[in-house]
Amino acid sequence: MTKKKRILSGMRPTGPLHLGNLHGALANWIKIQNEYDCFFFIADWHALTSDYENTGSIGKNIDNMMIDWLSAGLSPDLCTMFVQSQVKEHSELFLLLSMITPVPWLERNPTYKDQIVQMGNKDLSTFGFLGYPVLQTADIILYKGDSVPVGVDQVPHIEIAREIVRRFNYLFDDVFPEPEAVLTESPKILGIDRRKMSKSYNNAIYLSDTPDEVMSKISKMITDPQRGRKSDPGNPDICNVFEFHKLYSSSDTAEQLNKECRTAGIGCVECKKIMGKSLLNFLEPIHDKRKDYESRPDFIADIVAAGCSKAREIAQKTMEEVRAAVKI
């Protein structure tokens, strides 16, 4: 029997998951859990790299993230789900890797430079923020992950991880395989204001939103900015609501609305209502599962404990090899 390749990936618990998170990463995880030996972790230490001043909500966010994962379709029978900080070997390996990682490797990371600009309202001049890719490397290679599913913006982090692995293996011993980046394709999900869907922009539709909250947000969505009146023809090609129709409405409905919009046969208000119903139909099974899981906190705690135990067992074996190689 061929051994499954191991996949590792994580999410930072910085708030509730939204549709962008679902389509950008979680939907792919759900798909590949049947094909790979998957380890998915809640990266609470990574959350501290930018939110170190506001840690009070991290615990609640961890619980909600696990519920979102399970409600969307991740299964503890098919993958291992755990919390990063509950496996202390992550920090030990991070420390050892930080001793051999040249600072220029981290400073040239384009993601580091971009986020310094994008998060100009935060003081990110910390070692933890600069060393984010080193901790990420430790997360991956601690489980000797073969592949990491990432978007194109995260590829530089995996390249740094490969460089760190090569340097460790050269200095000490061939302990780690070089992880491969697996590019994931995902539909572009914009927020209700046409910017990237993000918690920080307050423009997101969350998996935990009630039906009333979902419809309220949809009613505020920006459509074709050049369509001033219902009697004006619209252009679905530049309308964010129509992008949602392509995801959540049937192909027949989307095609019909495409024609009606271009001939002013339907107004934006009615178009939004139709899309809202389609989106709620899509979210209904997630909402139903969420209610069930929220009523069973002990069950959630047991899943986390079992996942952490399995991850810890593997991590401890890896660190025994690492200590032997480093001769510590």
Feature tags:
2 domains, 5 strands, mainly alpha, 328 residues, single chain, 14 helices, Rossmann fold, two-stranded parallel ribbon, 3-stranded parallel sheet, Tyrosyl-Transfer RNA Synthetase
Q: Care to describe what's here?
A:
55% of the residues lie in helices and 8% in strands. The protein is built from 14 helices and 5 strands. The chain has helices at 19-32, 44-51, 58-72, 89-98, 103-107, 110-118, 127-130, 132-141, 155-171, 211-219, 240-248, 251-262, 268-294, 297-326; strands spanning 6-11, 37-42, 79-83, 147-150, 180-183. The strands form 2 sheets. The protein has a 3-stranded parallel beta sheet with strand order 1-2-3. A two-stranded parallel sheet has the order 4-5. It is elongated, with a radius of gyration of 22 Å. The model has no long low-confidence stretch (mean pLDDT 93).
Number of domains: 2
Question: Which class of the largest domain in CATH terms?
Answer: Alpha Beta
- What does the radius of gyration come to? 22 Å
Principal-axes geometry comes out as elongated
The helicity comes to 40-55%
**What structural class do helix, strand and pairing data support?**
mainly alpha
**Which fold name corresponds to the CATH topology of the largest domain?**
Rossmann fold
Measured distance between first and last alpha carbons: 37 Å
